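Section 5: illustrative case.
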């Protein structure tokens, strides 16, 4: 049975220049590989060592990039190693199969959101009405599924984020602060549900996961084993669980260590798949797809 590895991307495996956290002398800094270019500018990086580890992981397991990015934003990334057959975008709103969004999966997700939480328009209007233009740089709606703001962190009032989180909680939404972005995401929109679907389709008996933010917590808890870096929302809250390993590394070196741990576990545990995730109810397997 295959091992499935579902990993968050930004600030878990790949890093912007501002998030690299290179604290060593320049002469000892790791060599970096650019994995994302947008409008002719390099945006995201990983170490060359991490790139080699990811290539090995792609051969040893079913590697599933798992991100809150939209499909367009995800497709800007050029990861090393074999092209993934599956990817999870928009926090689970789109399940990509060979680069194409599965239409039936997306239809199931949108139906679940309509039944279980407040509508996107209500949340978007609240953000527009309460966020101060003095510290908001952009308002965005992603894939008609969730909303986020790009802000100036040094000007952002901490109490505003806390108040927004309480307001959203009462409407079935979650708030996550990641770098310069504040996400408002429906609680039923989860990476873990999409990971379970991929595990069902591939027959994976062992699932491994990695992530750094509040939006990754459900993914980590749903996997057989999980890893988080020493930075990010989860680290700031000292969040952990019995099957979660909290790594001390921060920045781009944390991405390298996460891949080292994932690869080691995949190689050791592949013959021993435990089947815990497959025992849970699974969404209906579908074949119908639509291009993004």
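Designed sequence:
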């Amino acid at each position: 049975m295959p091992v499935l590895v579902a990993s968050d991307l930004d600030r878990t495996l790949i890093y912007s220049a501002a998030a690299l956290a290179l604290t060593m002398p320049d002469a000892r800094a790791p060599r970096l590989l650019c994995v994302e270019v947008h409008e002719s500018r390099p945006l995201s990086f990983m170490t060359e060592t991490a790139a080699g580890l990811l290539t090995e992981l792609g051969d040893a397991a079913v590697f599933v990039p798992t991100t809150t990015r939209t499909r367009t934003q995800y497709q800007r990334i050029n990861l090393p190693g074999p092209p993934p057959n599956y990817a999870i975008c928009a926090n689970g709103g789109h399940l990509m199969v060979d680069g194409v969004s599965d239409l039936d999966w997306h239809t199931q997700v949108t139906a679940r959101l309509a039944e279980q939480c407040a509508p996107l328009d209500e949340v978007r209007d609240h953000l527009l009405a309460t966020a101060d233009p003095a510290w908001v740089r952009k308002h965005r709606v992603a894939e008609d599924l969730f909303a986020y703001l790009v802000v100036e962190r040094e000007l952002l009032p901490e109490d505003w984020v806390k108040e927004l989180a309480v307001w959203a909680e009462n409407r079935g939404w979650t708030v996550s602060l990641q770098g310069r972005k504040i996400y408002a995401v429906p609680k039923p929109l989860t990476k873990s549900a999409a990971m379970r679907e991929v595990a069902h389709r591939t027959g994976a008996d062992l699932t491994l996961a990695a992530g750094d933010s509040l939006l990754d917590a459900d993914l980590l808890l749903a996997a057989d084993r999980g890893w988080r870096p020493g930075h990010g929302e989860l680290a700031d809250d000292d969040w952990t669980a019995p099957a979660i390993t909290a790594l001390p590394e921060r920045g781009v070196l944390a991405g390298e260590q996460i891949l080292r741990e994932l690869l080691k576990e995949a190689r050791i545990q592949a013959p021993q798949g435990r089947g815990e995730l497959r025992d849970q109810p699974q969404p209906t397997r579908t074949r119908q797809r639509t291009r993004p």
